[in-house]
């Protein structure tokens, strides 16, 4: 059954209550929707509530106000459609790459031959086809993060949530990961919510960039990115690209030194 929206965030607020009774309202009046297959980047200053927003959408935390629907249903029922990638890949060192990728399916008891073939296919897709039986300590940071992305994709999620997945990588690896994620997204057709500190990365990848700001955090801008696809390096130097980046930078309210 198809739904108009992959995610609906309806007037969501999140307040943390500490043991001594203090209240910290981190999100208020968050309201936006993601269409099926859409790639949405989220940017905002550190502490503006981006991770809180993603955790709330994933169902790891409950909102204190409003509601979140995934394909029109409350999240608790749709969890298997969602996968999350964090900044740190957190692979199990005693499992090889293939077994790390297959872990979520083992938890669900659905690991079988077809699943193993698909896991190998994913490793192939991210250029690690020949490393399936290697261990994470034999891989660079970028390679480990690619394994973590395969692990997120192995359950064929319709919704991929990524929280600064390339934040720990060097600039060149990060660039090639951007190409990788664009390709994966085009191949799988999943909807993506992608949190990043990098405005160029946000613009280059996205159909839309949502800017979170203020205290408590809310949406201060929602900018559609109308650049042709698939995108190549040349788009980073186009006048349109710079215009988008400058506009988003102005909404964040900090100078980030885009070159
Ligand atoms: N589990 C929690 N309990 C209490 N406060 C939290 C919790 N998680 C996050 N916060 C607070 O929420 C605010 C936003 O954090 P976060 O969502 O991590 O921001 P960002 O990802 O944009 O840097 C911070 O002030 C942080 O201290
Ligand atoms: Mg964060």
Automatic annotation (TrEMBL):
This is ABC transporter ATP-binding protein. PANTHER family: ALIPHATIC SULFONATES IMPORT ATP-BINDING PROTEIN SSUB, TAURINE IMPORT ATP-BINDING PROTEIN-RELATED. The keyword rRNA-binding does not apply. The keyword Hydrolase does not apply. PROSITE patterns: ABC_TRANSPORTER_1 (PS00211), ABC_TRANSPORTER_2 (PS50893). It comes from the Bacteria. InterPro entries: AAA+_ATPase, ABC_transporter-like_ATP-bd, ABC_transporter-like_CS, ABC_transporter_ATP-bind, P-loop_NTPase. One of its GO terms (molecular function) is ATP binding.
